[in-house]
Design brief:
The complex is a heterodimer of chains A (121) and B (577).
Chain A lengths: L4 E5 L3 H13 L3 E5 L2 H11 L3 E5 L7 H11 L5 E5 L5 H8 L4 E4 L4 H13 L1
Parallel strand pairs in A: 1-2, 1-3, 3-4, 4-5
Helix pairs in contact in A: 2-3
Chain B lengths: L4 H14 L9 H74 L2 H5 L1 H14 L3 E7 L5 E5 L13 H9 L1 E3 L11 E8 L7 E8 L1 H8 L8 E6 L28 E7 L5 E8 L5 E8 H4 L1 H90 L6 H29 L7 E3 L1 H19 L2 E6 L6 E3 L1 H18 L5 E8 L4 E8 L6 H4 L18 H11 L3 E7 L3 E9 L8
Parallel strand pairs in B: 11-13
Antiparallel strand pairs in B: 1-2, 1-5, 3-4, 4-5, 6-9, 7-8, 8-9, 10-12, 13-14, 14-16, 15-16
The chains are: A alpha/beta (121), B alpha+beta (577).
């Protein structure tokens, strides 16, 4: 088991739970959250090492959640998932301190590489 | 794809409406009718008043000019008739005075009569002879150039008349004297003698003189006619004295004016003036041609002006209506083009929005499928071997591959719909085209496609987005490559269109397409490349060109080739966003 914890945030619970399971199969511990509020709460409670955050969510948007998390945990690396082909929101997220962004549907290997990069930084 | 006749028809008309059909379909018949109506209407509006004015003027002028001819004619006729009558009355009264002055016995004296005759011959112009006739009609004395003594007039009608009425003036006659003359006879009464008669004859030369004094032109004619229609004086054109006058004489009193054809078929104005005390008519004849000479000149001028105006009106009506129709046609065409463009861009933008929406919505379930299939694969790989393990791995792989394909589609779809930022930089369009052709070099060589470059050397640099333009040309050129046979031709031309735009055309001699296909080529997902192709190449091209403020149009004929023409703005402009 890895010595770090990942928090996966997406409104599609099927998506995050599957992704979490896949990460778990690869030896990465992952928690999931389905909306912005619970994600922010879990950052406090679980103290994850990396957050993978979907930008497009109902209620609080990924960017809002990002800003909120950066307030409490400025050092926390956050990887954004952009649902669009567009890179515009991803770039915007980078301005607010996101570590990087990935395009959905995301390749598991790519995600793990990014997570490892984020941990190292 | 099977389509029924009913489906094709509206689509074809849509194609025409959209104007992708190579040449715009106007309806010349409609403009022909419109043109004809305008010409007829304008011509009538201008011609009817002109024509009415001309007709009114024609008759008005004719009437007044005729009046100018007739009034003097009437006056002159009246005066001349009056003069003739006065002359005859004067002669009559002189003869009466003579008869009353002498007795029968005195005048039967041949010597005395001869003396009187000599005196009167001098004073009384035109006197021919004197004769004294007793109550039985015997000429008892005679003075004059003839030998008429002893002649008996008892059976002659004038003798009866003078016996009853006391005076008599004859019509002109020849009688024994063989030249035209008038006889004047008066009855005298004496208490101791039976009544007797003094008869004088005068020649008609004086009448001719009076008529000549009217001062007529050589074409005119004037003469006396009695009520039986016998000419009393010679006429120029209507017979000698005592001949029958060829025309009918009116029975009215006073002066009557007639216009008719004479016996020779000449148009004449005739004036008949009746005498007060005699059954004579003074006839004055003027040929219409000379009488109405001024009218003829005027009417000719009027006709010329009228004809000139009609021609002028006609020409200007023709010119104006042609101009109008051209303007209407132009504006119709412009409106139609604008409408088509609007319709097309609206259609494309709504299709774009729909596509983007679909792409977004599909993306999330796709991500889930991706993860689920990934997990399945993970589980199979990590789990224990089982009978169908390889088969399951293959299946999950093919699910993942399909997801990958979907990802590409949604990505491109979004690319089509997205409004990317345009990065302006100075670029040489010719260089850009050559660069794009570089990508295709291998294929061109392999398939022996002949590429003809007609690039304008003086093409100015433009400010636009290199990356996006590369995509545009790549899309179009690769389409052309797909259309041509091996060994086909491709012609790329660039030119300086005007001060704001440059133009590029890409023509191929490939398979071309029909109107139906041509009308859909800029719509997403419309593709003829069975098996491959997303149907997004040209829509994206269209979107980029629009975004860069340019235009793109396609013309094509089946089995003849396709030509794309692109116009791009030269200068930097504000983005549409």
């Amino acid at each position: 088991m890895s010595n770090f914890k990942v928090l996966l945030v997406d409104d599609e619970s099927e998506f995050v739970s599957t992704l979490a399971e896949r990460l778990f199969l690869r030896g990465i511990e992952a928690k999931t959250a389905n909306d912005g509020e619970s994600a922010i709460r879990m950052v406090m409670e679980e103290k994850p090492d990396v957050v993978v955050l979907d930008i497009k969510m109902p209620g609080m948007s990924g960017i809002d959640v990002l800003k909120e998390m950066k307030k409490t945990e400025p050092q926390l690396p956050i990887i954004l998932l952009t649902g669009h082909g567009s890179t515009k929101e991803g770039m915007e997220g980078m301005k607010f301190g996101a570590f990087d962004y990935l395009m959905k549907p995301v390749d598991i290997k790519e995600l793990i590489t990014k997570i490892q990069e984020a941990i190292k930084s | 794809m099977e389509t029924t006749q009913n489906e094709i028809k509206p689509r074809k008309s849509l194609a025409n409406k959209l104007g992708f059909s190579g040449e715009g379909k106007s309806s010349p018949a409609r403009y022909q009718i419109m043109r004809r109506n305008i010409i007829v209407l304008m011509f009538l509006i201008t011609f009817i008043p002109l024509f009415s004015m001309a007709i009114i003027n024609y008759f008005q002028y004719r009437a007044s000019i005729k009046q100018e001819v007739i009034t003097p004619l009437r006056l002159m006729s009246h005066k001349t008739a009056h003069s003739i009558e006065l002359y005859l009355e004067e002669r009559l009264s002189i003869i009466r005075a003579l008869g009353a002055s002498y007795s029968f016995n005195e005048l039967s004296d041949q010597k005395k009569l001869n003396r009187l005759y000599r005196i009167f011959k001098k004073e009384l112009d035109g006197l021919v002879d004197f004769g004294i006739i007793d109550k039985n009609g015997n000429q008892v004395a005679y003075a004059g150039p003839y030998i008429l003594i002893g002649k008996n007039y008892a059976k002659q009608s004038w003798f009866h008349e003078v016996s009853i009425r006391g005076i008599y003036i004859s019509d002109v006659f020849m009688g024994y004297r063989e030249f035209p003359h008038i006889a004047i006879a008066v009855q005298n009464f004496e208490t101791d003698v039976q009544d007797w008669f003094l008869r004088a004859t005068i020649d008609t030369k004086k009448l001719d003189e009076i008529i000549n004094a009217m001062g007529l032109t050589p074409e005119d004619d004037a003469f006396l006619v009695n009520k039986e229609g016998m000419l009393q004086t010679s006429s120029k054109f209507y017979g000698k004295v005592l001949e029958k006058y060829p025309l009918e004489i009116p029975s009215t009193l006073g002066t009557s004016i007639q216009e008719k054809k004479d016996h020779q078929g000449k148009d004449v104005i005739l004036s008949y003036t009746s005498f007060l005390h005699r059954d004579f008519f003074l006839v004055v004849v003027k040929p219409s041609r000379t009488a109405m000479k001024s009218w003829n000149v005027l009417s000719m001028k009027m006709l010329l002006i009228f004809a000139g105006s009609v021609i002028l009106i006609f020409i200007s009506v023709l010119k104006t209506s042609n101009f109008l129709i051209k303007r209407i046609k132009d504006s119709d065409e412009k409106r139609e083009t604008a409408f088509r463009e609007l319709e097309n861009s609206q259609k494309l933008s709504s299709i774009g929005r729909l596509a983007a929406g679909v792409a977004h919505e599909i993306n999330n379930p796709m991500a889930i499928i991706n993860q689920k299939a990934g997990l399945m694969k993970d589980l199979i790989e990590l789990g224990a071997d089982f009978a169908e393990k390889d088969r399951f791995l293959g299946l999950t792989d093919s699910i993942l591959q399909s997801v990958e394909r979907c990802k590409k589609i949604t990505h491109r779809l979004l690319g089509f719909a997205r409004r990317m930022e345009v990065l302006y930089e100075k670029l040489d369009l010719n260089d850009l085209i050559v660069e794009v052709l570089g990508f295709m070099e291998k294929e061109a060589l392999m398939r022996k496609v002949n590429i003809e470059l007609n690039l304008a050397e003086d093409l100015p640099n433009i400010s636009s987005d290199v990356g996006q333009l590369e995509q545009v040309f790549l899309n179009i050129i690769s389409n052309s490559f797909a259309a041509v046979e091996d060994g086909g031709h491709l012609k790329i031309t660039s030119w300086d269109e005007d001060k704001d735009r440059v133009g590029v055309s890409i023509e191929d001699d490939g398979c071309g397409m029909n109107e139906e296909t041509l009308s859909h080529i800029f719509e997403p997902f419309f593709t003829t490349k069975t098996g491959y192709g997303t149907g997004l190449g040209l829509p994206i091209t269209y979107g980029i060109i629009k975004k860069l403020g340019g235009t793109i149009e396609a013309k094509s004929r089946e089995d003849a080739g396709t030509a794309f023409t692109i116009h791009l703005k030269k200068n930097k402009f504000e983005s549409e966003e």
